[in-house]
Amino acid sequence: MEVRTRFAPSPTGFMHIGNLRTALYAYLFAKKHNGKFILRIEDTDAERFVEGAVEKIYATLKKAGIKYDEGPDVGGDYGPYIQSQRKDIYLKYAKELIERGGAYYCFCDKERLDSLVDEKGIKRYDKKCSRLTEQEIKQKLDLGVPYVIRQNMPTEGESGYEDLVFGHISVPNNELEDHILIKSDGMPTYNFANVVDDHLMNINYVIRGTEYLSSTPKYNLLYDSFGWQRPQYLHLPPIMKDAQRKLSKRYGDANFEDFIEKGYVPQAIINYIALLGWSPKGNEEKLSLEELEKMFDISGISKSPSIFDEQKMKWLNAQYLREFSLEEFNGLAVPFYEKSKVKGKYDYLKLSGLLQNRVEILSEIPGMIDFLEEFGAFDSRLYEHKKMKTDAAVAKTAVGGALEALKNAQFNHEALMEALTRKSEELGIKKGQMLFCVRVALTGKESTPGGAVEIAELLGKEESLRRLEYSYKLIE
Question: CB-side exposure of 311: number of CA atoms within 13 Å?
């Protein structure tokens, strides 16, 4: 039997990292077994619907490289793939379920429902309408009394299933409430539409978060009531912000688009979230999507929650940035140059040559290069470097010498290096001391991308000499 998995997000905003990981694992599992990965939009909750969110789902999956075989915008044999377009299907199956005894009409009004509290003080429906006679039901329907359709849960025994990660899960039936399947407006709840769609779309592996671990028995009771085959289940442990708190869209935790705007590349994000809850058999950490497709195996999925460590993702991102060609890196960097103070004033490709091996995330770029436009008084202690054995006195010699050496020098890399090297020999200071002091004098910064020669070349002769003169006077 062909493996068929699905990702079924609700269009409620940007794609949260936890949701994206679910999509990734469902995709990888399907690819590993030469199966199909399906996208379905679950938009039955009109109150939570966010305009434009469906398009964000498409865009995120595309950027992430997660290609679905069937979905709303690509079609397939089991459409429509948007739940709100399948409304009539759910009502038909709900009525069939009533005939099978797995569900019933509930005519209770809000006032009565609000008054119901069980012996533990929990609001819980008391199954009153499940005891109505056929005649009473017909009478209410004929009168047009508003109704919902509820699942008819057994009150004795237990319902269990085997999860591919967590093993055997069992829940006492008396803990399962007769939840609503069809709302009073005729729209299905998530609980019902989910099961009907998974069955009709031949989804045989359901991959989702552990928040559904204990509620899955009630879904299985729906499958059983219809006489349908249950899918296999694979529940994923949560991604945590820290030891106590889950990473959550509700609390404004970062989503995929936030990380893209910060200057992470999609490959690094996907690589990192793949490792949040799953481990390859070896010690590999940097894995392309193609490598993940080959290596993914459910035996590597952990039962324990994973803590989201942005520093680790930042490190991974840097590895990806290093591997791009200079032209590719420059293409990614240009929007960040355009946001900086050097916009349009320097050769971006030259800047990229300096930055590619120093940047971890692209949003660091403006802060790393703004010194090219910002220059003013700075503390002479910046010249102090124990390893280089430099201080203000050495700096005065080096910067004064550089001013002389560069007045008649060509401003290309080779000529600048030669002039500064020769001058350091004349002055009896080490070349490293000369270059370090000149870099500080040109930038007024403790650390910069590129050394003295690269920065002088970028600034040009006039600006370099102006800065050296200013810095020389500062030392005096």
Answer: 1
d(C-alpha 454, C-alpha 420), whole Å: 13
Residue where the block lists tokens 């289940």: 233
Residues labelled as active-site residues: 249
pTM of the model: 0.91
Tokens of 306: 């994973």
Reported in sequence order, the residue ranges of 51-163 that DSSP labels E, i.e. its strands, are 103-106, 148-151, 158-163
Cis ω on the peptide bond leading into residue 80 (within 30° of 0)?
yes
Backbone angles phi, psi at 234, to 5 degrees: -140, 105
Q: At 382, list the tokens.
A: 């910046």
3-class DSSP state for residue 475? helix
Burial pattern 224-256, b for ≥16 Cβ within 10 A else e, equals: ebbeeebbebbbbbbbbeeeeebbebeeebbbb
Residue 209, beta-bridge partner list: 236
As a whole number of Å, the end-to-end CA separation of the chain is 82
pLDDT tens digits for range 188-228: 998 899 999 999 999 999 999 999 999 999 999 999 999 99
CB-CB neighbours of 156 under 10 Å:
7
Place of tokens 């020669």: 453
CB atoms within 10 A of CB 51: 7
Instruction: Tell me the HSE value of 6 on the side-chain side, using a 13 A CA sphere.
Output: 27
CA-wise closest residue to 375 among 451, 450, 439: 439
**CA-CA-CA-CA torsion for 283, 285, 289, 295, nearest 10 degrees?**
10
Bridge-partner residues for 301, per DSSP? 278
Long-range contacts of 455-458 (CB under 8 A, 24+ apart): 456/406, 456/411, 456/416, 457/350, 457/411, 457/412, 457/413, 457/416, 458/346, 458/347, 458/350, 458/351, 458/354, 458/372
Q: Tell me: the pLDDT tens digits for 307-350?
A: 999 999 999 999 999 999 999 999 999 999 999 999 999 999 99
CB-based burial label for 447 (10 Å; 0-12, 13-18, 19+): exposed
For 328-355, give one letter per residue: b (16+ CB within 10 A) or e.
ebbebbbebbeebebeeebebeebbbbb
